[in-house]
Amino acid sequence: MSKDAVDTAQVADHPQAAQTPADAGDAGYSKDLKARHVNMIAIGGAIGTGLFLGAGGRLHNAGPALALAYLVCGVFAFFVVRALGELVLYRPSSGSFVSYAREFLGEKGAYVAGWMYFLNWSTTGIADITAIALYTHYWSMFTSIPQWVLALIALAVVLAVNLISVKIFGEMEFWFAIIKVATLVGFMLIGIFLLATQHEVGGEKPGLHMITDHGGVFPHGLMPVVLVMQGVIFAYAALELVGVAAGETAEPEKVVPRAVNSIMWRVGLFYVGSVVLLALLLPGSVYSAGESPFVTVLSKIGVPAAGDVMNLVVLTAAMSSLNSGLYSTGRILRSMAMAGSAPKFTRVMSRSQVPYGGILLTCGICVLGVGLNYLVPSQAFEIVLNVASLGIISTWVIIMICHAIFVRRAKAGLVTRPHFRLWGSPVTEIATIVFLLACLGMMWNDPDVGRKTLLLIPVIAVMLIAGWFGVRRRVGQNAAADRAELRK
User: Fold this and answer.
1) CB 362 within 8 A of CB 195
2) 145 lies in which domain range?
3) Is there a contact between 107 and 479 (Cβ–Cβ < 8 Å)?
4) Where is the Amino acid permease/ SLC12A domain (predicted)?
5) pTM here?
6) How far apart are CA 347 and CA 23, in angstroms?
7) What whole-number distance in Å separates Cα of residue 131 and Cα of residue 87?
8) How many other β-carbons are positioned within 10 Å of the β-carbon of residue 75?
9) pLDDT tens string for the chain (488 positions)?
10) 98 within some domain
């Protein structure tokens, strides 16, 4: 049993119930998330602004090979979620990978995992409210409203939804995901129809020649494809929400495997399929970073109000991301606070069983983003997006390290692996970690943004070390109290 274990699991039908350590931060949650909520949270995590908006600029830079980048990154993202899914079935926890880091890496590991995840979502939240404000400015009726005011309104709306109950959060994510999936399916049906009928798009007939006549699969060589990998990984960020949501569903052993397994075909269909269709309909050079690639295609065939419809969908995707960020960090921070490595107020639960302390802390950081929108509205999005990528890569690496240690303990007979497993351990974990670190290193080849982002790593490391010295006494006292409770 982990030295940081605080209780024993109370799940009667779980074969590990008598031996598996539980997280004190899991107490007090409702189990109101249904299977449809978790499935749609998985879909929502796999489909966001990274596809609806970001694919345009990446297609322009990397060409049709972007589909290959999405496929490769999607495979490794699936490995991460599959590993997390196995850990969830071993012990469901709203603290998710932070709780597993506590068990397999100790409190220092949990501390680093939690605060890097908080860094990811707090900065992503700033990017989201910035994006929402920018998308709202698309409509002329909102152009007179300052960007920072729109950002503040968006934050207030999503905060209110998160504070009511987890069921309301689940419903909001369910309908957000429905909108995104319906939009993608609709576009893909239109794209297939255009290909099948050879209907002209922008004055030219679509088909394979759109790729072969414009430089092939790698029109600008291999390096642009390598450089977009970091952005592609960020597009898959939020897939790990399945692990957090599992702590608030009544039947995680049934819901989680179904949700995790469906991620792979969704990635293949929605990401890879959409990019291949886009490449067959128009040359990569026609797409741009400033416009959704779907809007580009639809406007070329004269679809009325295509820009308005897609702008609404992208706005929905950004709201969904912000909603997920507040939800997940609230749960993660509560798990940390119960161990002493986060502020005490983040452990507080409302009457509706919502950890509002952690949600408000994340919201407070997002308010700083409102200030960023006021000071540098044109640069706010790019600044925080790259910082967030450091958080998500570190989170995924920690998940794979925890899984590798879990498997090693299982081989030693200390724990029992569930039937739902990540294959090929430890090769799969090592390959994924190497790939993620390589993507991080590739950022050095981007002197304008990527290199500056990497230079933040020593600064973040110093802040983490200083913070640990600030909380280690409290963490030690909590751990000693927990061990004393176990001996009773």
Assistant:
1) no
2) 35-471
3) yes
4) 37-477
5) 0.86
6) 13
7) 34
8) 15
9) 333 433 333 333 344 433 445 565 566 666 777 777 877 777 776 677 777 777 888 899 899 999 999 999 989 999 999 999 999 999 888 778 888 998 999 989 999 999 998 988 888 888 788 778 878 888 888 888 888 888 888 889 888 888 888 888 888 888 888 888 888 888 899 999 999 999 988 888 999 999 998 889 999 888 888 888 877 887 788 788 887 777 778 778 888 888 888 877 877 788 899 999 999 999 988 998 777 888 888 888 888 787 788 888 888 888 888 888 888 888 888 888 888 888 888 888 888 888 888 899 988 888 877 776 667 666 556 667 677 888 889 999 999 999 999 999 999 999 999 999 999 999 999 999 999 999 888 888 877 777 888 888 999 999 999 999 998 888 888 777 766 665 66
10) yes
CATH number at residue 125: 1.20.1740.10
Q: Which helix (H) or strand (E) holds 152?
A: helix 147-164
Which of these, 389, 388, 479, 481, lies nearest to 440 by C-alpha position? 389
Residues in the chain: 488
**Chain center to CA of 175:** 18
User: Within 13 A of 131's CA, how many CA atoms are on the CB side?
Assistant: 31
Is 266 in a helix, a strand, or coil?
Answer: helix
Considering only CA atoms, which of 459, 58, 486 is closest in space to residue 275? 58
Q: Quick one: which H or E segment has residue 125? A: helix 96-136
When divided into structural domains, the chain yields a total of: 1
Residue 8 within a domain: no
**DSSP codes joined into one string, 196-235:** HHT--BTTB--STHHHHTTT-S-TT-SHHHHHTHHHHHHH
Q: Which two tokens stand for residue 252?
A: 């995680």
Residue 16 lies in a domain: no
CA 391 – CA 382 distance, rounded (Å): 15
Could you tell me if residue 26 is inside a domain? no
Within the chain, what is the greatest distance between any pair of CA atoms?
79
Region of 348 please: left (phi>0), alpha (psi -120 to 50) or beta: beta
The answer to whether the CB of 28 falls within 8 A of the CB of 212 is: no
CA 409 to chain centre: 28
Cβ atoms 260, 246 nearer than 8 A: no
Task: Reply yes or no: is the peptide bond before residue 426 cis, omega within 30 of 0.
Answer: yes
Q: Are 130 and 384 in contact (CB under 8 A)?
A: yes
CA dist., res. 228 & res. 207, Å (int): 25
Task: Give the closest residue to 83 by CA, choosing from 414, 439, 395, 412.
Answer: 395
